[in-house]
Amino acid sequence: EISAREIAALLAHAVGENILVELEIAGGSKKLSLIQEVQHHPVRGDILHVDFLEVAMDEVLHTEVPIEAFGEADGVKNYGGLLEHSLRSLHITCLPKDLPELIRVDVSALGLNQSLHVRDLVLPEGVKATTDADLTVFIVAESKVNETPADPAEASKGPEVIKEKKPAEGEAKK
């Protein structure tokens, strides 16, 4: 029997949601399983129940893994662009032995107004994406904020300082 503390420790160290565990069933048999669902107490947050899905080493899994960027995009570093992460997870198929915790994507070569699509991702051996190949995963967009004022004279002019209350329309100045 696996304890809630052991499950909590396993989940705390996991990067993604796809965790393969080998369960030892009473009687000595072992089963390779995926953690399917974890139910937590709504107030305390401790684990109440865990569902496992038995998998066979020779059966293809259909699952979803998170996508994570690494590196600093050229368009962000040199041109002030913003890296937008459009697709957070990827639907994949693979054998249990090839199941990645997550897909890490190097975005350092992305220039301003360039994007990476699902078809551009380099996946681990044995992993195939089933998500639409034309979907955008990352894009370096131009910043929408105008960093320099249109009129340089306006930039040097400070804020307006009001020293006395202006009379309302129709009121005479005292």
- Helical fraction: 10-25%
Structural class: mainly beta
**Spatial strand sequence of the major β-sheet:** 7-4-6-9
The number of helical segments is 3
Which sequence of SSEs, written as H and E, runs from N to C? Answer: HEEEEHEEEEEEH
Average pLDDT, to the nearest integer?
82
Q: What is the rounded distance between the termini?
A: 88 Å
Q: Quick one: overall form?
A: elongated
Biggest β-sheet strands, sense, barrel: 4 strands, mixed
Question: TL;DR?
Answer:
The protein is mainly beta. The chain contains three helices and ten strands; from the N terminus they run H-E-E-E-E-H-E-E-E-E-E-E-H.
Structure notes:
This protein has 174 residues and is mostly beta strands. It has helices at 4-13, 74-77, 152-156, and strands at 20-24, 30-40, 47-54, 61-70, 82-85, 89-94, 103-106, 115-117, 128-129, 136-141. The chain is elongated. It has a four-stranded mixed β-sheet, with no helix packed on it. A three-stranded antiparallel β-sheet has the order 1-2-3. It starts with a helix and ends in an 18-residue tail after the last helix.
Relevant terms:
mainly beta, four-stranded mixed sheet, 3 helices, 10 strands, 11% helix
